[in-house]
Design a protein that fits this description.
The chain has about 475 residues and is α+β, with helices and mostly antiparallel strands. The chain has 17 helices and 17 strands. α7 (about 170-185) crosses α9 and α10 (about 265-285) packs across α13.
């Protein structure tokens, strides 16, 4: 086999290539000949991530710091002269579960007549067994709509993932980015890494139907090994990367509690944050005009539409007393008409934790800026405890927002008690409500992390996975082109 491109010394990519035939042999008979050995095969790769700081404040414009992990999604794609998409997926984290779906591409792209992708989204929402394929197939309607791409050929796609699903380490973004990168390469589309991430966010928001921010996709696309991606989510200002000091390291421990960015808790909190911004805009006297049902437009020259741009001091001094702790959607809509968030809307029948949801991004943005400032002016391990305290504060804020869980709280408490083992801080990651806890510690403290995992297993009966290591994003990886020799 002739390989054009570099594996970047990644053993998982080498394993993926060597095991292609073996992987296909695990699928049903009609899928084992997915690829034509006489034609070129393109391979792409995108990692999951650990959300070290920033998390759910991304949709409110916060600065975030994200760590690309070693676990990744690989995608192999080959164009086909038919009008068919054939997608086969093998997850090593789900006891080697295989899934297959065949889609008529002309019919699929013809679903859409509305401006909001609702018809395409419905074709997956109405068939939960195939919802997984939305993250992959969604690249085609999004590229058609957003980039005017005309697909006159189908494609055969194989996916293999080692990024655990539902663990808060962004398996969905890794899948979206690797898939979009593969489609772009196969159809010879020139797309920059930041734009590719934004297109993948549209896949998740409008095809999958999950109201995520863009930090996960940006990390999977633009991340660098052993460096924290620094992103100002306004909407996606890539500040570059921040080196992790050589005397520090990052791990993750899976709590065993399944997390979903599309879950009601995350969606409720996101909506509540935009409700808080709407109230602050009213108090500040900003011009507000009705946009459409449940949505408004705010002329905001001061904060540019981002709640995170309100400083903690400004919030406490001018707005805190005006933001209610809990408000029903019906009462809010009666007084304020709607929110500016295009990805969610206010449900009249839901009670929203507006005060906690509003405070979190305001204070989180300040915490992340402090965290990044310490890393950029690193003077030694004497500063590590300050970093850890910022992580603990972030975790506590998640809990006040209702996005904690017993398992993640237990893991964070174990890290708090492990200062003598050179572990400095921990917090729940991503959308919260379970998932993985990110841990900051002294380099070489892996045994202390594994000791916590062992204690957690003894207490809960669940054997948690320990995440370690880092790897490059899809842009640095690029693409491999495989041909039979």
């Amino acid at each position: 086999m002739i390989i054009s491109g570099s594996t970047h010394g990644l053993s998982d990519t080498e394993d993926f290539i060597e095991s292609l035939d073996r992987s296909l042999s695990s699928f049903p008979a009609g899928w084992r000949d997915l690829f034509d050995s006489r034609r070129e095969l393109i391979v792409t790769r995108a990692p999951g991530r650990l959300d070290l700081m920033g998390g759910i404040a991304d949709y409110s414009g916060s600065l975030v710091l994200q760590w690309p992990i070693q676990n990744a999604v690989h995608v192999a794609i080959q164009r086909d002269k038919s009008n068919t998409l054939r997608i086969a997926s093998l997850s090593e984290t789900q006891t080697k579960t295989s899934r297959c779906l065949e889609i008529n591409l002309d019919e699929f792209l013809g679903f859409e007549s509305s401006a909001d992708y609702s018809a395409t989204r419905a074709c997956f929402a109405n068939d939960p067994t195939n919802h997984w394929a939305a993250y992959v197939a969604g690249a085609f309607p999004v590229l058609t709509r957003e980039r005017n791409v005309l697909f006159n050929e189908g494609a055969h796609i194989l996916i293999k993932s080692t990024v655990s699903e539902g663990k808060g380490v962004s398996s969905s973004a890794a899948l979206e980015v690797a898939s979009m990168q593969a489609v772009a390469a196969a159809y010879e589309l020139e797309i920059s890494a930041p734009e590719l991430a934004l297109l993948c966010q549209k896949v998740e928001n409008y095809i999958v139907g999950a109201p995520c921010g863009v930090m996960d996709q940006m990390t999977a696309a633009c991340g660098e090994t052993n460096r924290l991606l620094e992103l100002l989510c306004q909407p996606a200002e890539l500040r570059g990367t921040v080196a992790l000091p050589e005397d520090l390291d990052i791990w993750g421990i899976d709590s065993g509690i399944r997390h979903s960015v599309g879950g009601s808790d995350y969606r409720t909190l996101r909506t509540a944050a935009f409700m808080g911004y709407r109230i602050i805009a009213e108090v500040a006297g900003l011009s507000v005009r009705h946009a459409r049902d449940g949505h408004v437009h705010i002329d905001d020259p001061k904060w540019k539409g981002y709640l995170a741009n309100v400083t903690p001091n400004e919030f406490e001094r001018c707005f805190a007393t005006h933001v209610p702790g809990l408000v029903t959607g019906a009462d809010f809509l009666k007084q304020y008409d709607g929110v500016t968030d295009p990805a969610t809307s206010v449900d009249a029948n839901v009670s929203y934790p507006v005060a906690a949801a509003t405070r979190h991004p305001i204070y989180e943005h300040a915490r992340v800026r402090s965290f990044a400032g310490i890393l950029k002016d690193w003077r030694g391990l004497g500063q590590a405890h300050s970093l850890g305290e910022l992580m603990f504060q972030s975790h506590d804020s998640y809990s006040r927002c209702g996005l904690g869980s017993d398992g993640t709280d237990e893991l964070v408490a174990l890290v708090r008690d492990s200062e003598s083992d050179h572990l400095y801080g921990a917090k729940i990651t991503g959308g919260g409500s379970g998932g993985t806890v990110a841990i900051l510690g002294r380099r070489g403290a892996g045994n202390a992390v594994r000791k916590i995992a062992k204690y957690y297993r003894q207490k809960t009966g669940y054997q948690p996975a320990v995440i370690s290591g880092s790897s490059p994003g899809a842009n640095i990886f690029g693409q491999l082109r495989l041909r039979q020799s």
